[in-house]
């Protein structure tokens, strides 16, 4: 027999969502406010563009094989123009099959001998991909006092920051990101900025991209995705920005090496998905409609929770509410809410120790379900969590 990759023994058991499912199993009439997946259909104009692209593949004239290595040129131009307002050029954008996949590829790019700094609480993918490569992980406490942004930055080669944040629903301010970029330049750290939820930002004073910060293109990579932007979680389409200005300590282009990674073991996103992505960026109104739909869900849930014994964060520029119930442990909170209301939430402690005492409420879901959930919060809420 072959021996197991020893680094895999450092991964903690994938516990959070399987345990959520296990505990919910014995209940009926459940409504899930736990999902990190989109629920509403993809707008017609975008599915039509994908249909057309698929049909073309069936004709001699329209058939295409492998696409351009970095992705469809028109799509990269469009992302440069619509998302980055020209601050990032098309040849700095790599189209992919999603942000999660890109996070894995970036880890391969930087390799095993690195230390990564990760927010606590955080989306688990940064830590798990790092552990698979035997990277060292250090954590940055993220607490309400500082809008869930790290107070200090530890010594690290790579620093992951997710804004708008999953799970806290908070968004880093310009001042916070300026601080981070200045620090990263001084301490020779690269930032990996996860902007998967940037489409939810409503407040025009908040940064939607790390490249809104002067000089970020020397030290920051941004990963982003069509998944939450336009309901492409199943279609699969994302992108990463590797600025041409980024160089290693000993010199040499990060962009060149990433091109090598992508051409060695990726070969590009589906041409049908890319046609859909292009159509999506041609319909900013449809993108806005979807994000305001989910944010209205968040507002409704938040309103119902406001009369309860808790502190509510997020939900205004992100599809998650991060709710602090004080001294009660997350799994106990989860259980109480489940038993009384048959609502499934996500225990905050599953995202890191700083999430203890919190529940995450997701705003993804159909309005009818959300309104039913709201009614249950109003009428069946556990007494222990009421004022
Ligand atoms: C959903 C999500 C993504 C998107 O991943 P895809 O692979 O593009 O579907 C990325 N980052 C975070 C924090 C997410 O919650």
What features would you describe in this structure?
The structure is a single chain. With about 375 residues, the protein is an alpha/beta fold. It has 2 domains: about 5-40 and about 285-385, Aspartate Aminotransferase, domain 1; about 45-280, Type I PLP-dependent aspartate aminotransferase-like (Major domain) (Aspartate Aminotransferase, domain 2, 3-Layer(aba) Sandwich). It is built from 12 helices and 13 strands. Helix 4 runs parallel beside helix 5 (about 125-130), helix 4 packs across helix 8 (about 255-265) and helix 10 (about 285-305) runs parallel beside helix 12 (about 365-380). The radius of gyration is 21 Å and the shape is globular. The structure holds pyridoxal-5'-phosphate. Pyridoxal-5'-phosphate (PLP) binds next to helix 4 and helix 7.
In short:
It contains twelve helices and 13 strands. By secondary structure, it is α/β, with parallel strands linked by helices.
- Helix/strand/pairing class, anyone? alpha/beta
In helices, the fraction of residues equals 25-40%
The radius of gyration over CA amounts to 21 Å
Major sheet: arrangement of strands: 2-8-7-6-5-3-4
Separation of the first and last Cα atoms? 59 Å
In total, the number of domains comes to 2
Low-confidence stretches: none
**CATH arch. level architecture of the largest domain:** 3-Layer(aba) Sandwich
The CATH topology annotation of the largest domain reads as Aspartate Aminotransferase, domain 2
